[in-house]
Design a protein that fits this description.
The structure is a homotetramer of 351-residue chains. Chain A has a six-stranded parallel beta sheet with strand order 3-2-1-4-5-6, sandwiched between helices. A six-stranded mixed beta sheet of chain A has the order 10-7-11-14-13-12. A two-stranded antiparallel sheet of chain A has the order 8-9. Chain A contains eleven helices and 14 strands. By secondary structure, chain A is α/β, with parallel strands linked by helices. Chain A is globular. Chains B and C meet through loops of B and loops of C.
């Protein structure tokens, strides 16, 4: 099978580096172009940050291109971890010529942009038909959610299906890599936590409702429950931990919830996609887990499974709590976008 | 005025050291005896941990006594930060002869033991009458709450009075000093958080209901709302941060809530007690505060004010969120107990 | 006594804030002007970083001025914590009109600029005569050392006087505040240390030789021993720890060294200057000290004493080791500059 | 080839777990017995700490035996990471029946116990002949060095051979795993470093001299240079960083030193032993490396290569500096002992 040629925009950033790392030796995709900003014209290998994951010679030797549709050669697919402002402007320009899968926030809530977690709402990809028509694009634009939302929505999906969600209150303990590089100064986090991340709570309170919503005629009708978020930045490198309180239509029975979470599978698992973990949600029996350093890389595809623990009912009737951990740079960013592209490829949406 | 003579039990522990530090040069109290365990017979100064707060020569020269009522000389008051098991057994023995103010958990929920935050429920001290009668004690036993509960209840009190609480979901980010010394291993918290603290959630879910309950004939009728706790240990030395979601009878108007919190005063403020901060609750206007390292020592009596920020309504009607910070070793332990003793002294309950 | 009017350049930076904090209610000096860069025109209070030390209303209400000699009103003294490039250009311009005390690195090694630690080499201030003459300045320019050098040179001075230094090898564990704000990213220091700080080793290897050198006709003849530095950035907020190996002319007797360090006093102590600690060097007897969090604020003027521990002879003859801790933002920056200005004032060098 | 049966003593400790992890699927060895202390009688899987490396079902199902020669079945080899006191007493008892490879400190400096780093001094194994004879042991006792010493001696060996060492001053920044579990309290290391580790400096100052010494008639004549150590505990999980100053007989030319380090190979590399990394010493060209989190797992056998950077001459003539990083739990403990056993096996010393 001939591999599809892909470009990664903003490839020198902390998430861009994850894409490149994960796309090396990929069975479907082949790295054809990398774009950057300050590093344009340099070898990619010379633009990596010290904490980049392992990246081989082939990718290191690619020349960094400007982030502009004209500068990128013919590719079948473009991954975009652009910053918000750049994404708002550039992603539609790229979509005229290219199929774009983005984990930028800029266009996630646009009516005709599907916001995809492949295990949760693959049906939302039908929005691409009306989208291409309306904009007269040869390409397309698909979004993946905020790094905190992906883990949350993956867990809320089986809960919502089984029990009917009425209210969700989520408190997060987020890793510094979620803020990019250089990101959060050491002086702000040593012996400290910060109970605030700009714009984060708005994203956590809106994106899951679109993801769990019903797709209709060229738009998604959002799910009807309410979400309240309380976000915190803590001194961890990778792995967003989220403690979640839910109110449900039906009784929250902890054993049943564990069974639903453990049994949850999606189309990526059925199709055996390369980046699909065997279990999208792993439930740990230990009383003091998940923990970021110990659990962020578990599962058959490291960083792609959400780990859940401490499932318990109450307080009161029809409510319960649990704690989840998702690798923010993998499942929360590059990994979800690549898995989405794999799904699109299998469905013939990248041709 | 003659000072009352006081003893501190378990004075070599991390909280015990706080007591000793705060009781030096106290206008009401004079350190007369310190007890310990492994250090019995040594000078107190030789038993201090490296991270002890400043402690002067007078206290350093006291000899560490065994923790037994017979070993303690005649004092007017005993402070007890004993471990749970020891407290369960020893506090009633001490109460036969001494007035005991305890921040141990063992006897907090006992029917006839008042669980006191001086600004919140000083009226509960009336339980001491029936208590002394029932047990035929010459002394008495008063408890102060868990370190996480104190900050929470101080904030819930004005909210409950103003809006009527129906449900509280609290997510905590707790400092390591709350686990004592040696406490949490570095290997467990570097690049990590732990979403579990043994027995902590039960305490957080029950103690505030007693504190905000109504005192009656020899017992307290607990408040009627529900509390759900989700606790986390993080890599900070001092200061428990708590993000709180509340459902209320009346509309949660953020401006009104800020006014109620800022205006909140209690009997310690009216009486001008030495350890009473001018404002029990300080509301910060900054969007990203409170933060443990920056805010744990603010206020007129460092460590005694709770700092609140991020007051906001929603999600949905009649609900809201806020974040609070309380110094766990001061307001959450030694400071509250000393303030309670000051109040008791003013009311003539220590004679 | 009328107070001298002072300006602080770059007052919005992390060291600038320390100056402002320390100059409030100063017996000799009165804050008259603050300059900045991005904050020009704003109230100073609106430009402070979250981790600024306490700063009162008076300073908060000052308007931030541009960092230019023309923009600064008539003052008697200018403190300069400017970044290197800006200092190189601007400090000589300021010196035409103003007496400048700088802790910037740019002009420290200039032949006619005295590089002062008030306890160590106050005699070097005689360089100001030839300096003013050569440049036709109405003002003057005095430098204070790099934050790592100050603590080191304060300890080397009594050692050199007593034993004669031949070689010094110093290994540092430096706090993040030394890199300013935002400074070192959290992602670089969580579960990590960095064995490199740009230009730092060169400064540590040269500045002490000038400070301990002999002042002659308009220049300093540097001390003759050799210094090798191995610097590391670690995850602490304040306090540079330095482990030092020395080779000496005379035998290194640990008891004698402790006595020399404990007995060391300088002109600031004799004059009783306001920012002079009673003991410039405190020797701790504990085997595992000094430690940054526990010892950085000890002494009569918090942050102004260097704390030394682990003094021991060997390996081999005429050599020894010790560990020292100096508060990098106070003794290593603002505090030393203010103490230098106090000394200059007493000597009539600011009129 | 039939695998040798091995036992791991103290297998439930932090180093013991590393042994078990590394011995799974080992081509020469097969786990036959695990001993413990508090966990005796339990399944090994039930005794693991949360931060244990991945350990499979086979090992998890072994029953934990008492640490006594009588309790251990017939095995060909015993690995001992026992605590000092236990090792002192028990290792000679085990050696009566078993070949013991120990990374405990107790017997390292005993005259007839070879202290081995397989790349550095495999010839010292000849001590086993006289050893067995003197003690009438059927087995034998071989030691491996302290976790800080192993990385240091691996780097000093090629330096000593090429330039002739006269003096070594080493300053360490050591990870908390080196203290075992629970080890160093969080309260001691948040925003802090500790310039002291009990007994560590003595080991660092003596063991390398034995390792680099010449083996003779039943004893080793230690190398003649001097070592001074200044040790520090810092907030990292794994990886001891060491900055080293050396004085040499010949000129310290940085390029030559890099070449010698890069070219260094030992018998394990020649024999292609399973746990031998291709390069015992990796020299990084980056100016700010090695760093613990980024470099502790590099190389062909993760954790077995020492990473060196910042090689530079001076101060003065015939001296130089460099920084090295060694994974303390792998190369500094379990890995070195296993590599030693592999070498002994190849040489027929385990039959």
């Amino acid at each position: 099978m001939k591999k599809l040629r892909v470009a990664v925009l903003a490839a020198t950033g902390i998430v861009g580096q994850r894409y490149v790392h994960m796309l090396q030796d990929h069975p479907f995709f082949e790295l054809a172009a990398l774009t950057g900003n300050a590093s344009v014209g340099k070898r990619y290998g010379a633009s990596l940050t010290a904490n980049a994951p392992p990246i081989g010679e082939e990718a290191r030797n690619l020349k960094v291109l400007p982030t502009s549709p004209d500068a990128v050669p013919d590719v079948d697919l473009v991954f975009s971890p652009l910053p918000t402002e750049a994404a708002k402007k550039l992603e539609p320009q790229f979509a005229r010529r290219f199929n774009v899968v983005s984990d930028a926030s800029a266009n996630r809530m646009a009516e005709d942009v599907p916001l995809i977690i492949p295990e949760v709402n693959p049906s939302h990809l039908v929005l691409l038909g009306p989208q291409k028509e309306r904009h007269h694009w040869r390409g397309s634009l698909v979004s993946t959610p905020n790094c905190t939302v992906t883990g949350l929505a993956l867990v809320l999906k089986p809960l919502h299906d089984a029990l009917g969600l009425k209210k969700v209150v989520v408190s997060t303990l987020q890793a510094v890599s979620g803020a990019g590089y250089p990101g959060v100064p050491s002086l702000d986090l040593i012996d400290n936590v910060i109970p605030y991340i700009e714009y984060e709570e708005q994203k956590v309170e809106s994106e899951p409702l679109k993801i769990l919503g019903e797709v209709g005629e060229g738009a998604v009708s959002p799910a009807k429950f309410e979400i309240g978020a309380m976000v915190h930045r803590v001194s961890t490198t990778e792995g967003h931990l989220e403690s979640v309180y839910v109110e449900t239509e039906e009784e929250f029975d902890a054993d049943r919830v564990v069974d639903e979470l453990r049994g949850f599978r999606g189309e990526p698992q059925e199709l055996g996609l390369p980046t699909a973990p065997r279990e999208p949600v792993i439930v740990t029996p230990e009383v003091d887990r998940p923990q970021p350093r110990l659990d962020r890389d578990v599962g058959t595809v490291p960083g792609m499974s959400v780990v859940v623990g401490r499932v318990r009912a109450g307080p009161g009737r029809n409510s319960g709590r649990l704690t989840l951990l998702a690798h923010n740079s993998i499942r929360g960013a590059a990994g979800s976008a690549i898995l989405t592209a794999e799904l699109m490829h299998k469905r013939g949406l990248l041709e």
